[in-house]
Amino acid sequence: MLTVEPRTTLVEALRDTLGMTGTKIGCNHGQCGACTVLVDGRRSNSCLMLAVAVDGAKITTIEGLAGPGGTLHPMQLAFAEKDALQCGYCTPGQIVSAVACLAEGHAGSAAEIREYMSGNLCRCAAYPNIVAAVEMVRDARKS
Amino acid sequence: MAQSINTPVTRYEAPRKVSGETKYAADFMPAGMFFGELVVSSISRGQLVSIDLREALAEPGVIAVYTHETIPKYETPKGFYAGGPGTASFWPMTGTDIKYAGQPVAYVVAENAAAARRGATLVKAKYSTAAGRVEMDASKSFIAGKKEDNVVTKGDLKAGTAMAVAVVDETYTTPFQHHNPMEMFATTAHWRGDQLTVWMPSQSVRTARAGIAAAFKLAETQVEVLSPFVGGAFGSKAGLPPYAMLTIAAARGVGAPVRLMVSREHMYTVASFRPESRQKIRLAASRDGRLTAFEHIETAQTSQFDDVINPGTHMTRAMYACPNIHTEQRLSRSDTNTPGFMRAPNEMQTFFALESAMDELAFKLSMDPVELRRVNDTRTHPVEGVPFSSRSLMACYDAAAKSFGWARRSTAPKSMTDGDWFVGYGCATSTYPTAVAPSAARVRMYGAGTAVVELAAHDVGTGAYTIMGQIAAQRLGLPVKAVEVSMGDSNLPIAPISGGSVTSASAGSAVHVACLKLAEEIVRSVVKLKDNPLSGVDPAQVTLMDGALQGPGGKSMSLLDALKATPRGEATANGEYAHPELTEQALRTTYKGGYGVAGPVTKTHAMFAFGAQFVEVRVNRWTHEIRVPRIHGAFAAGTILNRKTAHSQLMGGMIWGIGSALHEHTLVDRARARFLNTDIAEYLVPVNADIGEVNVQMLDERDDFVNPLGVKGIGELGIVGTAAAVANAIHHATGKRLRNLPFTMKDV
Question: pTM of the predicted model, to two decimals?
Fold first, then answer.
């Protein structure tokens, strides 16, 4: 049970109230995607949601992707392997978004991945490597 | 011994970054922490007349609101370009002067972020307004700094122009740009009595510490600046910014830790940016393409209170052989905050201009643009006369031209189409100066076969953690995984500002030297012991070669075995690297927290990295949409320490170049001196869907002069020339020559 002020955003409840700082704030305006979390499986900008508005929902953050014992999610491993990150600040949002992109069936081609990952800005511009990481996980699932 | 250097080792901190464990400045939360928020000026020039805090202070959760009258005092340092640590020489909240729009005028402290934001909206400031302006008026421009540095003439420009068969004389413009790192500027300040800990994203923890200690009259031992991870910087986090000082002062005032996360909007005015510029270029050439005259006058914007000289003409005049050269570095003032350095601060704008002009010249001469570069390639610096320590420009052109398929280009503009798309190919030169700063490092090695590398360098996303570990692993003969790296902490041995692409060459060399010192220490101990291959050997005759100690007469043993044999079983060494041609003044500057380097031009050599970029542009016949489906770059930058992270650095730079060509532009209301598109949706940066194929080649190049590792910096090389390559490809696709960045649908 978590008690927050009505004006507290979801991302600030996660970060400042719960101390789960894996989710990042990059603009606080829903423009950059750094704060992407899954709300009942759907990717959402947690800076644009009030915490009280998701009362009862299942929220998945970057901290929730690893398996029991801390085994990294295949998408996390793929991001590391393909160097799909540099400074790492957008990375939690990118990875959460990438997991959903694949689950949504929006990873059919490189062009489709680019389109459906364009809500997550990466200023270091690791974009081609992000696409490669998503493809890697997609292809591993197929085989 | 396994090779570490030059291999594609996975990023050292990648497992932590992909799991969300890495902590950036705003992720630290000391107990009892409050939240800060800035209130900024709504006018660009004038005076603060009054400020009413009553409503803000009545807001539930607001703890304090500071103004220039109440913020705890500190000594304001000079700006970076005036030789100090500050991002600017003028400090907000020190009086009632308003000198730029978005200047901090009050600082709210509250129990949580929402209350702080709400409190900030309730502060009522009244101003008397004067006319602020942003203008780029050539008639008011001036030469700043030393004339001998900023006006350079060689030969006779007039005569060189008169003898030419082709002359290009054009002006190119580049806009204001903002770094917009993904991590918002932040500071978390925690006082414990007179001991201060500051978490801030920093490209120089030593610069920040020196400035903070002086400002608050503390000893270096009383201040620590921690910046273990930086969420992108690109030049925006190099100096000591006002938002950090205000947070430190506010934390002292309320007697509790305070964290400020600067809003994206405020990021456009509380720190630096790339100034707008005009580039006047004249190129004259004989029939065979050889340059007979080169003139470059760069005029860049600066603030009313700092002279920001980013000497781009120093770089362009190093580029091509030419007997008659004249360059000028000029400034023009506007009512903004002080600009600064943004990725390739001297080179992005100036090489957009030079490399566009080279393409225009090639077109006038009916020459292949690649061949024009070839006939003007040079082994010596055209003005300074010293040889390049290494220069692989044409090898880069040949490699990239081949992989790109340049030979398939039909020469006439508008001659290549694909359905509704005009297709164009363009190319341009990349270059970046190699500067080497002094740096120190500490290495500890244990008999269990592990090591720790410690230095106050920074990883701003560059891969610095990874390569420091690789260098130590290679020298000590350990697996990369056995080496821990600590950085971004002002308590560690000094390393330079992570700017000017100096970290690998400078701090990397310090790690190298520390490993050699460590080996010397172990050797001194092991030769005194009995029953080992080096017993009784003269220590001066033993050398370290990738983890092996080699003595005279083929006597050798591994460094680790030697360490295990010593009574201590562990060893620590401090190393310092300073380039042989580093001046005493530069050494002094670095140790004071400034930017002191050897190069790019020393007494004996010119040190530069080179590259060549080729782009394919597609322009839609009906909508005029401009796309860059593929870009190929080949680069030669000495030793590549890590082929995976270096690839990302160069690729990121090239994509920044595409951004400069097609997206990035801070719009400005000139009559009101105000930036307009101050968020990350209206300030366009490339998104994933904007980027197609990016092909990066890293050529082998050996350079024994630059530093012991033979390393040249690559963090900025990739962005240089890209915008010109795009402009040249647009000309090829459409016949339109675009000279003003960025290029949009309405321009074609």
Answer: 0.98
